[in-house]
Every structure is written in structure tokens, then in C-alpha cells.
Design brief:
This is Unplaced genomic scaffold supercont1.1, whole genome shotgun sequence. By secondary structure, the protein is an all-alpha fold. The chain contains 22 helices and no strands.
Length: about 850
């Protein structure tokens, strides 16, 4: 059930949202159209026509709001509707206060046969009359197309020069001043020649002025009327399109309401009779019927408003026509009186001129002085006008500044009030939740009390039945016991008691039935009230959640932007660190490859050098052993020395080769340059002469070449042998000393090998560590890329939310701007009307 009602509620919300979006699109298209820059009058007409279109759209929005007022719209929409209604009311007030142009004023022909004074009076009357407002010209297209055609015919009719200037270009008072100053500048002077030809000259001057003004006015009128007709045609087409769209949207809303009503009816028919689901479906059906009725009433209201506009426009036109006719009659009477006065004055002046021809020179001088004075007054008037315009501009600037400050204060106050309102709403909802909880607890206790009372009632009824049965048994016993008249009277009393008891039981049962029905009705009413309160609370909760989501979205946007900036920075740092580590890894790999290459080269060089020296030592040892076998002192030395090993193994080079081949890895990479020189055998020979043995090894058990060469002492030789055979001694000394690498050389080579192996192991460990760091960096980069993707999605979501927020803010700002522009335009038009009236009055006073 809740899913069906929720689906219908969503459908209605979608329909209302579609209507609002279409209206917003129409308003945006109207506001975004570029305005052509022509004369100020054209700009005003375009502005007024666009305002009329917005007025029509506002009227439809008001009607649409009336149609969906039953669907419990949100508070933001209510505020928007109130502002739009206020704007529409101000527009209607400005339309009713502003004058409407009449056909007679726009098509009044100019009299060609009058004199200069007549044209001057006409211009003065035109100046005194209120200026035509372009807003009234655009009222007619909003009412009907027939009135628009009449307005176009009125605009296209023949208009006099002075009135044309006042109608088409109301913001150019200079042209009106020229028209009004021209008759005075060309007026006849009190001279004899002017008195003779006064009538002919006045006729010629008036005809020339009227001809030139009519030519200029006709040219301007043709261009202006053509452009006005084109603009009116476009605006009428747009208005018709808007009306068709509005009618179509109203039909769609009505169809959606009908569909909702039909679905509610079907659901009510399918639901069980008397169930809560059926009641809810009936309520939904009633709501749909109310919505449909609201749409019908909104259409009726729109039609009635259009009819009221037409009637008001017709009433205004009739009143204006009557006023214009009365003004024309008054002006004609005044012109007739002035013409009679001027005729009498002209006759008297002609009589006086005939008697004062001698004073013509003086009069000419006076006329020249008056002309100069008039020029000076005109200059003073122009200066005063410029000062007045400057003062008006300064006043407008100050007023706009004050208004902007006031608006800013009001906006801040509105924001504060909105915050206070949200806080109050939250507190109220908290208190409502507490009260609801208390009500729920009280209801539970009430149910428990009801159950207890019901149990007590059942117990009492059972006891009453038991007592009645006992009473019946007692009555039977009494009847049996009583046989006389006394017993008969007791039986009657008992029967009466029984009848009263039965009446009491029936009355109590009836009262219990009435009480149960009343309690059921009370519970049903309480349930309905709870449902209404719950729906209202849900709507308020949705509104609060929407506002909170908006605020949370804004906060999340700010936080996300800050975190995004931090993550961008950390990502850049991680990328830089990754690049640095990659460079370090590549450098270490190249260093390791170079080290391995150098190690292989040094190993090959050392093996080759070792093989070469081994070959040399082989040849030397072979020669030395061959000499020692043939020499007796060597044998005696061997006997006296007591060596614990057999020297014959030195003659077999295969053992040395096997030993050297067993341990090739212990050999150094390169021989040390600091190897000490070979020791000469002279000291050992001197020691052996004294009968002592130098550096006799304790025992040789290893057949390793390194250990063997490390434990072999220098070969001792006798002095006599050395003295007798010097060449042999030299050979023996060199062969015995250079029999193999020394201990220091082997230790250094072993240390170098161990150092290289440790460096190799360290490089391997460093390479493994760098590999792990590279893998970790890759994993971090992958995680960062995933976070970046998630942030991009969040940014896209935030951009969508920002666009929605911007659209809502733009709509709100547009309504506020429209309201402000309308009020400002009304105030400006009123001020302009007052200023123009004052200027015309001053000009009329100065010209008189």
C-alpha cells in the first residue's frame, strides 16, 4: 500500500516538477534573447513587452501553484510563490496607475488653418497632458489579438507632429521645446508691415512648421510603426505559443490527476472492505479528485483574470476617451476665448499702431532687447535643466546606494532568520518526538487499563451469573417452602426483582455496546489524526533533510576540495618519490652490472696471472729439485733439519695443480702492489752454520697449496756451498723465497674476496629492498589512482550538485531581480512623470 501511495506521490511530484522546469525554460529563453539597440522609445517598448510576457508566465505560475497547493509543497516553493504573487500584484498596480493611450489622442489630426498662437496653445496643452507610457501600448496584446490589432491600427494612423514626438519619443523633451519655441520665435512683431500681413504671415509660418514637422513625424512614424508591428507580431506569436503550452501542461496535469484517481479507485475496489488500505486508497482518490478540481478552478481563474483584464482595459479606454474628449472641449473653448482676446487685442493694437508710427524705431529696439532677454532666459533654462539632471543623477545614485545597503542588511537578516527558523524547527521536531513517545507510552498504559477493566468486567459478569443462579435456586426453594398467601407475595416480589435484574443486564449490555462503538470511533479519529500528523512530520522531515543534505553537500564539497588538493599534493610527492626511487633502482642496477662485470674481469685476470706464476714456479721448483738431488750438502741439510715431511711430493706438479684447482674461488682478484719482496736466504744460511734450525714447522698435515706455501720455511744452505757455487745459491735463494705467495698476500687476497662477497650480498639485499620498495610504490600508485578515480566520481557528483544549487540560486535570484526591477521601474517611471510634468509647467510658465 505504501509503495502505491509513494509511486502516486512521486508521479505528482514529477508532473509538478516538469511544469516548473518548462516554465523556467520559457522564462530563461525570454530573458536570454539579445535586445536590439535602437531609439530609447524602442528599448522601452521591448522591455515592457518582455515584462508583459513575464507577467503572463507569472500568472500561469500562480495558477499552477493554486492547482498544486493541495499536494503540500515545500516551504521554499511557498516563499517563491509569495514573491511571484507580490511581483504580479505590483505589476497590476503599476498597470492600473499608469495612463492608457486612447485612439483619439494618438490619431487626433492637427489643424492646418490656425495661426501661430493656435499651434502654440496646442503644444502647451500637449505638454500639460500626461506623457504616454509604452506599458499601456503593450497591455492590449496580453488581453486578446483583436485589441492588439486595434493598437497596431492606432499606432499606424496619422499622428500630428507635436503629438508624434510626444508618443514615439517621450524621453526627448528638446524636440517638444523646439516645437513650442518655434511659434514664439516666428511670431509677428508690432510693426506696420507685420500688422498689414499678420494673417498671411501667420498662415505661412504655421503651414511651414506643420509641413516640416509632419514630414519628419511621418518618417519616424513609418519606421517606428513598422518595427512596433514586427515586435508585436513576434510577441503575440510567443504569447500564443505560451498559452498553448500552458493549456497542454494543464491538460497533462489533469490527465495525471485522473490517472491517479483511477488507480486509487482500482486499489480501493481491490482492497478489503473496511480495511486501513481501503481507507488510504479512498483518501488518495479524494486527493486526486481535489487536484483535478484545483486544475479546473485554476483554468477558470485564469479565464476570469483574462476577462477582468479585458474589462479593465475597456473601462480604462472609455474613461480615458471621455477625459480626452472633455480636455479637447476645454482646450477648444480656451483656444476660442484666446483667439477672441487676441483679435480684440490685434484690433486695438492696429488702432494704436496707426497713431504711433513714429515710435517704430523705439519698438524695434525694444523688440531686439526682448529677443536678447529671451535668449538669455533660454540659456538660463538650459543651464537649470543640466543642473537639474545632474542633481537627479546624484540623487538616484545616493538612493540606489542606500537601497543596496538596505537590501544587503535585509539579506543578512533573512539568512539569520532562516538559521533561527531551522534551529526552531529542529527543536520543535525534537519536542514533538518526545511528546509522541509520551503519547505512545500513555496509549500503551491506556490499552493495559482497558484490558484490566475488560477482565474485571468479565469477572463481575461471571460473578453476577453465579449470583443469579444462586438467587434462582433460592427462589425455587422459597416457592417450594411457601404454600400460603405469604409465600405467594414473596414469589411476586422475587419475580419483580428478577425482571428488574434482567432490565439492568440489558441496559448494561446496551451501554457497553454504545461505549465500545464510541471508543472505536475515537480510535479511528485518533488514527486519522495521527496519520495526518505523521504525513506532515514526514514532509517537514523531508524538507529538513533536504536542507541538511544541501548544507552537508556544501561542507563535503569544501572538505573534498581541500582533501583533493592535499591528495593531489601527496600524489605529486609520491610520483616524485617513485621517480626518484626508479632512478635510484636503475642506477643501482647499472652499478651492480658494472661491479659484476669488473668482478668477472678481475677474476679472469687473477686466474690467468695465477696460472702464469704457477707455471713459472713449477719450472723453478723442477730445476731446484733437480739440483738438490745431485748436491750432498742439501741432503745433509735435510738430515740435520729434521723436517717432518717428505720433499719428494714437491716433484709431482699434479698435486699442486689439484690443490690449485680445488680452491680457485679463494684466489684474489688482483695481486696487491704492496707485496713485500722475497726474502734472501743468507740469514738462514748463517743460522744453519751455527747448527741451529730456523723456523722449523711443527707439522704439515694439509696438502693445500696455500697452507703448504705458508708453512714452508726458507731453504737453508751452507756457507761453503754458497761460496763455492754462487750461481746455484742464487738459483736456490730465488727459488726457495719465491716458492709461493706469502701469508700477507693470501690474507689480503682473502680479505678482498670476502669484502667483494659482502659487497655483493649487500648489493643483492639493497636490490631486493629496492624491488620491494618499487612494488610498494606501485601498489601505492595503484591505490592513489583508485582514490583519484573515486575523487573524480565525487567531483562529478559535486559538480552536478553545484549545478543544481546554482540553478536553484539562479531561479531565486531571478525572481528577486525581477521583483526589484519591477519596483525600481515603477518608481523611476513615477519620478520621470513628475519631473516631466514640472518641466512642462515651468516651460509653459516661462513661455507665457
Amino acid at each position: 500500500m505504501t509503495s502505491k501511495s509513494g509511486s502516486r506521490w512521486n508521479f505528482l511530484q514529477q508532473a509538478v516538477a516538469s511544469v516548473e522546469s518548462r516554465l523556467d525554460d520559457i522564462l530563461a529563453e525570454d530573458a536570454d534573447r539579445p535586445k536590439r539597440t535602437h531609439t530609447p522609445a524602442h528599448n522601452k517598448k521591448r522591455k515592457n513587452s518582455s515584462q508583459d510576457l513575464l507577467t503572463t508566465a507569472d500568472v500561469f505560475v500562480a495558477s499552477a501553484d493554486l492547482s498544486r497547493s493541495s499536494s503540500t509543497a515545500s516551504s521554499s516553493n511557498d516563499r517563491l510563490q509569495e514573491r511571484l504573487a507580490r511581483a504580479m500584484a505590483k505589476k497590476n498596480v503599476s498597470r492600473t496607475e499608469s495612463p492608457v493611450p486612447t485612439q483619439e489622442q494618438s490619431s487626433r489630426p492637427a489643424s492646418r488653418g490656425g495661426d501661430v498662437s493656435t499651434s502654440l496653445s496646442d503644444a502647451t496643452n500637449v505638454a500639460d497632458s500626461p506623457p504616454l507610457n509604452t506599458d499601456q501600448i503593450d497591455i492590449a496584446p496580453r488581453t486578446s489579438s483583436d485589441v492588439g490589432e486595434s493598437v497596431r491600427q492606432d499606432v499606424g494612423s496619422d499622428i500630428p507632429a507635436s503629438l508624434n514626438q510626444a508618443v514615439v519619443e517621450p524621453e526627448r523633451p528638446g524636440a517638444a521645446a523646439i516645437v513650442m519655441e518655434q511659434p514664439d520665435r516666428d511670431a509677428p512683431r508690432p510693426s506696420a508691415e507685420s500688422l498689414r500681413h499678420s494673417q498671411a504671415g501667420s498662415n505661412r509660418v504655421s503651414e511651414d512648421v506643420q509641413r516640416t514637422n509632419e514630414d519628419d513625424g511621418l518618417k519616424l512614424d513609418n519606421d517606428d510603426t513598422r518595427e512596433i508591428q514586427e515586435e508585436m507580431g513576434t510577441y503575440l506569436e510567443r504569447i500564443d505559443a505560451l498559452r498553448r503550452n500552458l493549456e497542454r501542461l494543464g491538460q497533462e496535469v489533469a490527465q495525471s490527476a485522473q490517472k491517479a484517481a483511477e488507480s486509487a479507485k482500482q486499489g480501493a475496489a481491490s482492497a478489503e472492505a473496511g480495511s486501513l488500505e481501503q481507507k488510504l486508497l479512498q483518501k488518495d482518490e479524494q486527493i486526486a479528485v481535489l487536484i483535478e478540481e484545483g486544475t479546473r478552478w485554476s483554468k477558470t481563474e485564469l479565464d476570469l483574470r483574462n476577462m477582468l483584464k479585458k474589462v479593465r482595459a475597456q473601462a480604462l479606454t472609455t474613461t480615458k476617451e471621455q477625459e480626452a474628449a472633455r480636455q479637447r472641449a476645454d482646450r477648444a473653448e480656451r483656444a476660442l476665448r484666446s483667439m477672441e482676446d487676441r483679435a480684440r487685442k490685434a484690433e486695438a493694437a492696429s488702432k494704436r499702431a496707426e497713431h504711433s508710427l513714429a515710435a517704430h524705431a523705439v519698438a524695434a529696439k525694444d523688440v531686439e532687447a526682448m529677443r536678447k532677454e529671451r535668449d538669455a532666459l533660454n540659456a538660463t533654462l538650459a543651464e537649470m535643466k543640466s543642473q537639474l539632471s545632474k542633481a537627479n543623477s546624484r540623487a538616484e545614485a545616493a538612493e540606489s546606494k542606500v537601497q543596496s545597503e538596505q537590501w544587503e542588511k535585509e539579506r543578512r537578516r533573512i539568512v539569520e532568520l532562516q538559521d533561527d527558523l531551522t534551529v526552531a524547527k529542529v527543536e520543535r521536531e525534537i519536542s514533538e518526538g518526545k511528546l509522541k513517545k509520551e503519547i505512545h507510552d500513555l496509549r500503551g498504559e491506556l490499552e493495559k487499563q482497558k484490558e484490566r477493566t475488560h477482565a474485571m468486567e468479565t469477572e463481575m459478569l461471571s460473578e453476577q451469573a453465579i449470583l443469579e443462579s444462586k438467587l434462582e435456586s433460592f427462589r425455587v426453594r422459597a416457592e417450594e417452602a411457601s404454600s400460603a398467601d405469604h409465600g405467594h407475595a414473596q414469589a411476586k416480589l422475587l419475580r419483580q426483582i428478577e425482571a428488574l435484574q434482567t432490565q439492568y443486564t440489558t441496559a448494561s449490555q446496551n451501554w457497553q455496546g454504545i461505549e465500545s462503538s464510541l471508543l472505536g470511533r475515537i480510535t479511528n479519529l485518533e488514527k486519522e489524526r495521527d496519520d495526518v500528523v505523521r504525513s506532515e512530520a514526514e514532509l517537514r522531515k523531508k524538507l529538513r533533510e533536504a536542507t541538511l543534505r544541501l548544507k552537508n553537500a556544501e561542507r563535503e564539497l569544501a572538505n573534498t576540495q581541500s582533501t583533493y588538493a592535499d591528495m593531489d599534493k601527496s600524489l605529486a610527492d609520491a610520483n616524485a618519490e617513485t621517480r626518484r626511487l626508479q632512478r635510484k633502482v636503475t642506477q643501482l642496477e647499472t652499478d651492480l652490472a658494472n661491479a659484476l662485470k669488473d668482478l668477472e674481469e678481475q677474476k679472469g685476470n687473477s686466474e690467468r696471472e695465477l696460472q702464469r706464476r704457477i707455471d713459472e714456479e713449477k719450472s723453478k721448483w723442477t730445476a731446484a729439485l733437480h739440483i738438490q738431488r745431485t748436491d750432498s750438502p742439501a741432503a745433509s741439510i735435510r738430515k740435520n733439519s729434521g723436517l717432518a715431511f717428505d720433499i719428494n711430493h714437491l716433484m709431482s706438479p699434479t698435486q699442486y695443480e689439484r690443490g690449485s684447482s680445488r680452491r680457485p674461488s679463494i684466489m684474489p682478484n688482483a695481486f696487491d702492489s704492496n707485496t713485500p719482496p722475497r726474502q734472501q736466504s743468507t740469514t738462514s744460511f748463517r743460522g744453519l752454520v751455527n747448527g741451529s734450525i730456523a723456523e722449523t714447522p711443527s707439522g704439515v698435515t694439509s696438502m693445500d697449496p696455500d697452507e703448504y706455501f705458508a708453512n714452508i720455511p726458507p731453504t737453508p744452505l751452507t756457507t761453503s756451498h754458497h761460496s763455492q757455487r754462487g750461481g746455484l745459491n742464487d738459483l736456490i735463494s730465488t727459488s726457495t723465497v719465491g716458492a709461493g705467495p706469502s701469508v700477507q698476500l693470501v690474507e689480503r687476497m682473502s680479505a678482498n674476496v670476502r669484502r667483494l662477497e659482502s659487497e655483493k650480498a649487500a648489493s643483492k639485499d639493497e636490490l631486493a629492498r629496492l624491488t620491494t620498495q618499487r612494488d610498494e610504490a606501485r601498489q601505492e600508485v595503484v591505490s592513489l589512482m583508485r582514490e583519484v578515480e573515486a575523487k573524480r566520481k565525487i567531483e562529478e557528483r559535486l559538480e552536478a550538485l553545484e549545478k543544481e544549487h546554482a540553478s536553484l540560486s539562479a531561479r531565486h535570484q531571478t525572481t528577486l531581480e525581477l521583483l526589484g526591477e519591477k519596483s525600481e521601474e515603477v518608481e523611476e517611471l513615477k519620478a520621470d512623470i513628475v519631473d516631466v510634468k514640472q518641466m512642462y509647467r515651468q516651460l509653459a510658465d516661462t513661455m507665457k
